[in-house]
Design goal:
Helix content: 40-55%
Shape: elongated
Largest sheet: 3 strands, antiparallel
CATH superfamily of the domain at 87-243: Glutamyl-tRNA Synthetase, Domain 3
CATH topology of the domain at 87-243: Glutamyl-tRNA Synthetase, domain 3
CATH class of the domain at 87-243: Alpha Beta
Number of helices: 19
Strand order of the largest sheet: 3-4-7
Radius of gyration: 31 Å
CATH architecture of the domain at 87-243: Alpha-Beta Complex
Bound molecules: glutamic acid
Length: 478
Amino acid sequence: MKVRVRYAPSPTGYLHIGGARSALFNYLYAKKYDGTFVFRSEDTDIERNIEGGEESQYNDLKWLGIIPDESPFEMNPKYAPYRQSERLDLYRQYAMQLLEEGKAYYCFCSEEEVERRKQEQLDNGVKAPKYDGKCRNLTKEEISENLKKGLKPCIRIKLDPKDIFEFDDLVRGKMKFSSSDLGGDFVIMKSNGYPTYNFAVVIDDHLMDISHVFRGEEHLSNTPKQLAVYKAFNWEAPKFGHMTIIVNKDGKKLSKRDLNVLQFMSQYRNKGYLPEAIFNYLLLLGWNGKDNKEIYSKEEAIEAFDEKNLSLAPSMFDQDRMNWINSCYIKSLDDEHYLAFIKPFLFKVLDKDAYSDDELLKIANMFKEELLFGEMIVPKLERIYKPTYNLSLEEVEFLNLDTNPTLYKTIIEKIQSLDHLDKENIQQLFAETRKELSLKGKSFFMPLRLKLTGSHEGIELYNIFILLGKEEIIKRLS
Ligand code: GLU
């Protein structure tokens, strides 16, 4: 069987970690088995769609290297169109088929009525209220009378309460659901002529020859409903794999409002994360490789991927681990790519026209080893180029050491005689000064750091000297 998988976002928001992870695993599965990865837009929830949602999700996926083979932008005529909003006739046609075969029926109950009757069931002690099937057996005459009155019906599927839906979940193993637990005959076409998710998804997955579906655990309860639709049409269902939820450090389901973790790809891009690093991290979020290996290139990921290793335990989103992985990728960039990546962040502090690329690279390289993400360079540069001197009490103590005036004076004198500054001559200058003044560790470098940058943190002291240059050092120490 040819492997065809899909990522099918609703463009009601931007690409989020959870969606990106689903897309990644479908993509890996396709690439592993020489299959096709489809991007389909499930855009029938018109009220919740956001402007540009589909395109930004698509572009973010491509940025991550999760590249669709087919999508609204690269259609295979055999399966087009790739937006549900352009497939409405198909859904109607298939719904009509079920109506004609007596496997579905028009329902004229209003939403309020249905809710009211469910409430009555609850009041009578029923634990899981269902649609009561009121319109299941309307006569032809009753139906045409209602239609003539201008009532707009929805269409419900007829469930056989004796049905049991079983499937082998690719992640969780054997799953079993009873048709009687699905809340009664559910709506497949709404009264506004739009399909419901559980109906459209089946029509599309079937017509697009989708063979496997990896999606989030939140869809597990939808699967038996979808299997009921497959059964009504006598179609074979794809294989399903439901990935575990993503939780935060406290073990709670990650909420889009959780501000402690970055959740949208746009946030990652703006903060200076590398797409390869996110790809790598998403892989670890729900999949266990061998030998605790953590760094995977895309090719290695495809090679190593095995759906049997999709994890069953909730995946904990760990921002620190993500940062660490990103730092590994930053360190491995060559000069050209590093400069291109870091430039926008450099220019948040440095004047665009004042530096050549060589100078920018020299500056940026001083920070490369300590960056977890690109934006981290901004406060580090600010300390050097635009210090603010918000000092802690301890820092103030260091600035008030009795030995400081002589220290600054000695440095100023010595630096005058250097015609340029480099690592060697600065370190020599430090060594001589310390020896002459008998200054140990902190009492030497803390006052200098604080006086020069307003902070005890930062890159190597000799690099601070190189960046500031002779004149500026003399000015700040005076
Ligand atoms: N449009 C659905 C969603 O965004 C897709 C679910 C599925 O993969 O079947 O959640």
